[in-house]
């Protein structure tokens, strides 16, 4: 988890400013750091599901996709983890977004199809955060 938190410190540097991003008040949003531990041999399938389906479904349900990382494990036998940050207007908005996301028939179909040969995720860690008053401003996808 410590390496995941170190990744979060890079968010401001990792997101280039562009016309498709908007500056936000660092104190205005509620953030969630999530770490997915893939089931053995499932990292590629999990990345594909995020790439092809999950990010769009998150956005559909009001979740801001801030940044995603693939952990580069130091142990050659380790598969790695997916670490990402989502942003919401509030904790209540987070709860409503996730409730709608897991109930979405499109998500249910994607999850069922992608897990036809077994679960993709063995474990999920989640940390809730707000920005410190001294954090530099960052830009987020709209």
TrEMBL record:
One Pfam match: NIPSNAP
Read off the InterPro entries from this record: Dimeric_a/b-barrel, NIPSNAP
Q: Identify the residues that the record assigns to the NIPSNAP domain, covering every copy.
A: 31-136
Signal peptide range equals 1-19
Alphabetized, the UniProt keywords read: Signal
Q: Does Transmembrane helix count among this protein's keywords?
A: no
Membrane listed as a keyword: no
- Name-wise, this protein is NIPSNAP family protein
The source organism is: Sphingomonas qomolangmaensis
């Amino acid at each position: 988890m410590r390496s995941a938190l170190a990744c979060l410190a890079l968010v401001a540097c990792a997101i280039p400013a562009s016309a498709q991003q908007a500056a936000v008040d660092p104190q205005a949003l509620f953030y969630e750091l999530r770490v997915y531990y893939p089931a053995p041999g499932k990292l590629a399938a999990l990345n594909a599901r995020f790439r092809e389906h999950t990010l769009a479904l998150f956005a559909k349900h009001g979740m801001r996709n801030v940044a995603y990382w693939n952990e580069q494990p130091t142990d050659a036998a380790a598969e790695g983890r997916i670490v990402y940050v989502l942003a919401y207007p509030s904790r209540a908005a987070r709860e409503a977004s996730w409730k709608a996301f897991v109930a979405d028939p499109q998500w249910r179909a994607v999850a069922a199809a992608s897990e036809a040969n077994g679960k993709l995720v063995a474990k999920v860690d989640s940390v809730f955060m707000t920005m410190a008053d001294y954090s530099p401003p960052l830009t987020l996808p709209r």
